[in-house]
Each structure stands twice: as structure tokens, then as C-alpha cells.
Amino acid sequence: MTAMKTFDNTRPLVGAMALGIGRAAYEYTCEFVKKNYVLSRPVPRYAAIAERLARVGRGLEAARTLTWRAAWLADEGEPNAKEASMSKAMAGQAAIRACIEAIEICGAEGSIAKDHQLLEKWFRDIKVYDIFEGTGQIQRIVISKRLISDLKAF
Ligand SMILES: Cc1cc2nc3c(=O)[nH]c(=O)nc-3n(C[C@H](O)[C@H](O)[C@H](O)COP(=O)(O)OP(=O)(O)OC[C@H]3O[C@@H](n4cnc5c(N)ncnc54)[C@H](O)[C@@H]3O)c2cc1C
User: Fold this and answer.
1) How distant, in Å, are the alpha carbons of 40, 51, 72 from that of 9?
2) Is 27 a catalytic residue?
3) Which atom of ligand 1 lies closest to the CA of 132?
4) Nearest-CA neighbor of 117 among 128, 100, 103?
5) Using an 8 Å Cβ cutoff, are 105 and 111 in contact?
6) In this predicted model, what pLDDT tens digit does every residue of 38-57 receive, in sequence order?
């Protein structure tokens, strides 16, 4: 019980750490694209890149809002097990997606050039945020159990 209570406080923190890496990769990619692509040109490749960036951006924003809410509930001493699991599960996935897209969009030029080595490091580092403090699968079990017990209350 004490361990589970601890997770309610630490899972939003792990979500926030994942989001920091995801955001770094995302912002790096946006800068790379600004320098290397002209997104306003009606060429399918540019439109496809813009669409991928938009998906990553909205995933990170949604996960950030969820993480703030889970952390706020913890600060207020309110029950937050469901929100803590949701924030960690979503932040991990959003950040992994941001790092995968960053590697793919920036390509070899963006990820192996000497002054760009962090991109490749973020890509390697990010997966563990979906593993420790309870894997993504375990978070989804916690969420579904909480949702079902909420439903039983009606
Ligand atoms: C780099 C790294 C750093 C770590 N750092 C720490 C640390 O600092 N402190 C710490 O305490 N631990 C740490 N861990 C351990 C981590 O928390 C565990 O690896 C993780 O919780 C998974 O547990 P397990 O390895 O025993 O795998 P298992 O529990 O055997 O799970 C294996 C796979 O099966 C899935 N699975 C398990 N049960 C179910 C189920 N009922 N339904 C669906 N899927 C399921 C899991 O999601 C996982 O994908 C670290 C792990 C790694 C890889």
C-alpha cells in the first residue's frame, strides 16, 4: 500500500522527466526543419513533415497537461493513482514518439553530425522511461482497474 502511494507521487515525476527529453528532441527537430525545409511550399514531402511535427507536438502538450494535473492532485493530497498512471503511460509514449520522429526527420545529417550528438543519445535514453517505475503495460492495467472501479460506483 505504501509502495503504491509512493508511485502516485513518483510516476508524474517520471512522466515529467520523459517529457523533458521528448520536448528537447521536438524543439531540436523543429529548428532543424526550419533551417532545412520550407514548410509552406506545396510539396507533399513538406506537408508530411509538418503533419508529423503537429502530431508529436499535440502528444507532448496533452501528456504535459495530464502530468501537471497528476502532480497538482498529489500536491493537494487528493487521490491521483489513475492520473499518475495516465501521465506516466502517456508521457513515455509521447516522448518516445518525439525521439523516433526526430531521428527519422533529421536523418543522418541531423543525428550523427558532431554537434548534434544529443539527438542520438535522447533516442537511446528515452525507452527506459516507459519501463521503470512500472512499465506502460502495468500503467494501463492500473488505469483500467481504476476506471472499472469508478464505473462500479454508478
Ligand atoms: C535501464 C533500467 C533502469 C531501471 N532502474 C530501476 C530503478 O532505478 N529502480 C527500480 O526499482 N527498478 C528499476 N528498473 C527495473 C524496472 O522497474 C523493471 O524492469 C520493470 O518494472 C519491469 O519489471 P521486470 O523487469 O521484472 O519485467 P516483468 O515484470 O517480468 O515484465 C516483462 C514484460 O511483461 C510485461 N508484463 C508484466 N506483467 C504484465 C501483465 N500482468 N500484463 C501485461 N503485461 C505484463 C511488462 O510490461 C514487460 O513488458 C530499471 C530497469 C531498466 C531496464
Assistant:
1) 43, 34, 10
2) no
3) 17
4) 103
5) no
6) 766 666 678 889 999 999 99
The Cα–Cα gap between 13 and 80 comes to 13
Q: CA-to-CA distance for 102 and 27, rounded, in angstroms?
A: 9
Would you state the pLDDT for residue 9?
A: 94
CB of 135 shorter than 6 A to ligand 1? yes
Fold of 2-152: Butyryl-CoA Dehydrogenase, subunit A; domain 3 (1.20.140)
Task: Read off the pLDDT band of 3 (50, 70, 90).
Answer: confident
- The finding on whether 144 has its CB within 6 A of some atom of ligand 1 is no
Rounded to an integer, what distance in angstroms lies between the CA atom of residue 73 and that of residue 116? 38
Name the residue of 14, 88, 132, 142 whose CB sits within 8 Å of the most ligand 1 atoms, as the mutation to test its pocket: 132
